[in-house]
Amino acid sequence: MDSIRSAFVTIKNWLDWLPDIVVALLIIALAAGISLVVHKYLRMLTRRLLARRYPNTLAVITQLRGITRVAILILAMIIVIPVVPIPSNAAEILARVLLMAVIGLVGWAAIVTLHISADVYLRRFRLDSADNLLARKHTTQIRVLLRAADVLLVLITLGAALMTFAAVRQYGYSLFASAGVAGIIAGLAARPVLSNLFAGVQLAMTQPIRLEDAVIVEGESGNIEEITATYVVVRLWDLRRMIVPLSYFIEKPFQNWTRESTALLGTVMFYLDYRAPIGAIRQKLTEICQSSKNWNGRTVGLQVTDCKDTTIEVRALVSANTASQVFDLRCEVREQMIDFLQREHAEALPLRRQLALRSPEADETVARSRAGSRR
């Protein structure tokens, strides 16, 4: 580092015939340019050494390219700032800016490191598999906790950067000393943010919902598409998106169809005539399920669940691995069963029966009309 600084001192001596501000700008620009060239050369060298033998390590280093570029640039500024001919107060300001940049760089590096660690951990789980309950559990937990950690690291980094200024420190001390009404107002104003933040941590730990869970919220059915630090995006069945605060899933009841397993039961109700052949309908239901790609082979059944004055209520019970497959299977059962009944058992379709009762006067009138027609 001393040799590099002495080289910049030599360059400054060569430029003594120029004004000090021009010399300072030229030296800073030269240092910045050299740092960017060095960073580019190091990237090329790293890619050449690791591309074939260590592709995963190269991928991690590639994600850190922004941090390493800024780190080399800050290091170059730290080296040349004592060399450039600038007033002492300007040098002090630049030194303070560099200190804040170092603090910000450390916070940025911590956030990126957390994200890389989370990505590496989640690579062992696949959300696109048939049985993805464990994958959804870990993915939800890691992503929600990661967002909470991001918020915490940003606040710590900003606090550390601001505390480098004496005036801000004194203001902070006086603010804490006179908490009073201002503290109460700030606490009330921050209540929604804090409640959602704590709700996010609670959701990550207890996991009442996970990514891609099938839920019913406010009477709408859909799937959990995204969980952020403050809200949850629910992808509804018709591709609309419902935005729900995180605290909703802690404070209000909702339905989660895939809490423990993705497999679901679906019901199809039929209202048939009393002459309906239950045995034949039960056999047809089994045939429909066995020929369907949506049935998971677990549950199929048919029961007469109620008897009304004109019809009987028949319930078909079927199972599938996901909510969308249950919906499709129920539609298949309805369509094919109706077609089967129309073709082979039309008597099973409900009929509206009416019994006409005639009075004695009406019978006498009918008899007279028939006698007159004979004459």
Tell me what the CATH architecture of the largest domain is: Roll
How far is it from the N-terminal to the C-terminal residue, by CA?
Answer: 135 Å
Counting helices, strands and paired strands, the structural category is: alpha+beta
> Which of globular, elongated, flat, extended, rod-shaped describes the shape?
elongated
Number of helices: 13
Q: Tell me the Rg in angstroms.
A: 38 Å
Lateral arrangement of strands in the main beta sheet: 4-3-2-1-5
Can you walk me through this structure?
- The structure is a single chain.
- With 375 residues, this protein is α+β, with helices and mostly antiparallel strands.
- The chain folds into 3 domains: 1-124, no CATH class; 134-259, SH3 type barrels (Roll); 264-348, Alpha-Beta Plaits (2-Layer Sandwich).
- It is 60% helix and 15% strand.
- It has 13 helices and 8 strands.
- The protein has a 5-stranded antiparallel beta sheet with strand order 4-3-2-1-5.
- Strand 2 (220-227) and strand 3 (231-236) form a beta hairpin.
List keywords for this structure.
3 domains, SH3 type barrels, three-stranded antiparallel sheet, 15% strand, Alpha-Beta Plaits, 375 residues
What's this model, at a glance?
This protein is an alpha+beta fold. It has helices at residues 2-14, 20-50, 55-63, 65-80, 88-122, 133-162, 166-177, 180-189, 191-206, 248-251, 278-290, 323-344, 360-374; strands at 214-217, 220-227, 231-236, 241-245, 255-256, 264-272, 295-307, 312-320.
